[in-house]
């Protein structure tokens, strides 16, 4: 039996216990929980083969009461007797995409982001927000197949673009490659077709939270997106963090969402506070360039899930819905470079050089922390990606 | 051993051989091929357990050469010795969704449809088509979880709408429920992330074709769709036909696509004719109300797949991409009721009554036929759905 040392102030102490999928050489991927700088194999810790799977989906499908029970069992066992063979050093393992993504929907839940993009994409419009924006959480479906785990290289996408000076569209690698710093919400159990998930029941369906970088080719997006929305400007890649922070670990992070005015329709009303006081950081080649505050988001994850299912659309274990870019009111709180550099017209200084959009070799790391139980602080790990040219 | 009788002129003779997934009471779903009014179990016919699966995905993943080989083997074995236990009467079996849907993308490939909708949704615009429309096949990702097999009841969706006379949005069951008569293309084998599928290689990746009814709530769609595209107006349900007609069966249906002017970028150019002379019919409560001609479609499925992957987005076995509404130039060739009734202002007569959008109890059946080998005609079966009120 092993006892696991956790350094004082670790973001991965008992208040966190995020789930991931790891492997060691010669072994298939399995579910583990992170504790400090270690990964503990859950099938061995708890003697339950649901964790011997290569994704969290079988466990997530067991439902909310089981999630509560397992979190309790981990907390108890991990302080008592951990079999030696269940413990790995984090540096010795490979981390994988922690869940199989079913449907993926990207929302647009930050008022600051939506207003900034409205001003940039539709400068002629009197109002930066569309008339529907404060009545429903606007969202669209994205591509599941290109959602990859932190560390995966991001190949610069090619596509059509047509700048203001171009008579006809041109084809080539994107020249306005951007990030979107978001959170992703992982659905553990869904709803049957023809039924809906009320906002107040969302916490029984949402298993956990990941960091999410929705890489965006702004030049491809600007040309393609009317009238049916973004497609190839987004579909080439999105990066998620390898650790799924349980929603159960975020009780201390709950804060009220900003006042919603006009009042929302009844199906979007919530009894509990569903804002999340999660502090996100965006690092560009090692330098922090933005600190988007998740607490500033207008629409909550409970509202997103309630909206997404109100028409009877079924959701499933492994569904992922993302918040859309997290931007706060201040300039250095903007979670996309198109906002941070105001469409490329106001470069930011990165390691001494003026920068606007991403160049080959650039590396972006998203990270985040939040208040946890008993005064602890908990971490989300990181969503890391480096841009490479197409071979 | 059985010999299977096929009536003269059957749409399901040896020129067709569509694949589906069927079950009989007490047995798990398995792959079968339709021959006349029979279903032949393929695992038993060919002695290959890849067909004992509940979806076509494992077989599709084996790739194009194997698809050619299996089609040859079926043709040969079915005329020689069919084990008794492999043959079922079509009326005795239950048909299931024939493949597991990975990512689903809906295109907008009919110029007539796009122009009609432009006139209806943006009457103030000088040009009905957006500037990008003739340069790229516009498309967006849709929801995979709500794709259901023919015969599944369609629950009328609820959602927000805001009519011209409404001061604020209202919530309730859609009052402008519509259809979109489309074809769906099933991807058998995909491409790795960071690579693309050239238009001229698309036929090695597209396994087959289904009928596709993209049910649409126009009131929900009109309010939600700016700026990120359709979401809840579409995500509640789409119906596919249970038989996947192999692309290999459609060689005789190939025709040139309409002239594309301006010329398309090189990645969208094709050497072979990729138009498909498929005649679609839309039945409303038993009465044919429209006959959309697939041959009139501007963008081809090869171009859709080439476009969808040109940014390096991976596609996978089970991906489905749909054509968008098939509309021809004539009024009675329009594949959506919003066009056919011009936004509800010009009712059509169905069984003697003037009709615009769908009422509870209405049943829609899509069907289609195409030229097959040796002068035969082949059928697509049907995509059937009846509207029911939410319980």
TrEMBL record, chains A, B:
Q: Which residues form the signal peptide?
A: none
Q: Which residues form the active site?
A: 113 (proton acceptor)
What the entry lists under Pfam families is as follows: FAA_hydrolase, FAA_hydrolase_N
Single GO molecular-function term?
A: metal ion binding
Cofactors per UniProt?
Ca(2+); Mg(2+)
Keywords of this protein's UniProt record, alphabetized? Answer: Calcium, Hydrolase, Magnesium, Metal-binding, Phenylalanine catabolism, Tyrosine catabolism
**What pathway does the annotation place this protein in?**
Amino-acid degradation; L-phenylalanine degradation; acetoacetate and fumarate from L-phenylalanine: step 6/6
EC number per UniProt = 3.7.1.2
The record places domain Fumarylacetoacetase-like C-terminal at 105-387
Please verify whether the record's keywords include Hydrolase: yes
Give GO terms for biological process. homogentisate catabolic process; L-phenylalanine catabolic process; L-tyrosine catabolic process
Fumarylacetoacetase N-terminal domain ranges (all copies): 15-98
Q: Which residues bind Ca(2+)?
A: 106, 180, 182, 214
Binding of substrate occurs at 108, 122, 221, 225, 325
The record's listing under InterPro entries reads:
Fumarylacetoacetase (IPR005959), Fumarylacetoacetase-like_C (IPR011234), Fumarylacetoacetase_C_sf (IPR036663), Fumarylacetoacetase_N (IPR015377), Fumarylacetoacetase_N_sf (IPR036462)
Which residues does the annotation say bind Mg(2+)? Answer: 214, 234, 238
NCBIfam families with a match to the protein in the record: fum_ac_acetase (TIGR01266)
Put simply, this protein is called: fumarylacetoacetase
């Amino acid at each position: 039996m092993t006892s696991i040392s956790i350094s004082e102030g670790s973001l991965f102490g008992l208040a966190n216990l995020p789930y991931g999928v790891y492997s060691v050489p010669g072994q298939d991927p399995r579910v583990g929980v992170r504790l400090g700088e270690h990964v503990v194999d859950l099938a061995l810790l708890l003697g339950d083969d649901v964790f011997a799977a290569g994704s969290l989906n079988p466990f997530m499908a067991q439902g909310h009461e089981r999630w509560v029970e397992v979190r309790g069992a981990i907390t108890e066992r991990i302080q008592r007797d951990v079999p030696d063979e269940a413990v790995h050093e984090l540096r010795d393992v490979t981390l994988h995409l922690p869940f199989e993504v079913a449907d993926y929907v990207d929302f647009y839940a930050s008022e600051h982001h939506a207003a900034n993009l409205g001003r940039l994409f539709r400068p002629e419009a009197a109002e930066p927000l569309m008339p529907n924006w404060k009545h429903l959480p606007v969202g669209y479906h994205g591509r599941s197949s290109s959602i990859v785990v932190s560390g995966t290289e991001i190949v610069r996408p090619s596509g059509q673009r047509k700048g203001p000076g171009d008579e006809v569209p041109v084809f080539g690698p994107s020249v306005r490659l951007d990030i979107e710093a978001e959170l992703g919400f992982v659905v553990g159990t869904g709803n049957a077709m023809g039924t809906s998930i009320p906002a107040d029941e969302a916490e029984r369906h949402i298993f956990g939270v990941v960091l999410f970088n929705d890489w965006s080719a702004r030049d491809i997006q600007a040309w393609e997106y009317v009238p049916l929305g973004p497609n190839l400007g987004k579909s080439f890649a999105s990066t998620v963090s390898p650790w799924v922070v349980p929603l159960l670990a975020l009780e201390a992070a709950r804060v009220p969402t900003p006042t919603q005015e006009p009042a929302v329709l009844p199906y979007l009303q919530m009894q509990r506070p569903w804002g999340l006081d999660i502090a996100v950081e965006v690092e560009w080649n090692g330098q922090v360039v933005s600190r988007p505050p998740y607490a500033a988001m207008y629409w909550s994850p409970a509202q997103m899930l309630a909206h997404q299912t109100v028409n009877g659309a079924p959701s499933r274990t492994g569904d992922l819905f993302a918040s859309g870019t997290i931007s706060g009111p201040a300039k250095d709180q903007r979670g996309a470079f198109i906002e941070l550099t105001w469409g490329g017209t106001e470069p930011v200084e990165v390691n001494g050089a003026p920068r606007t959009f991403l160049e080959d070799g650039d590396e972006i790391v998203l990270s985040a922390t939040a208040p946890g139980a008993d005064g602890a602080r908990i971490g989300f790990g990181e969503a890391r990606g480096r841009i490479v040219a197409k071979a």
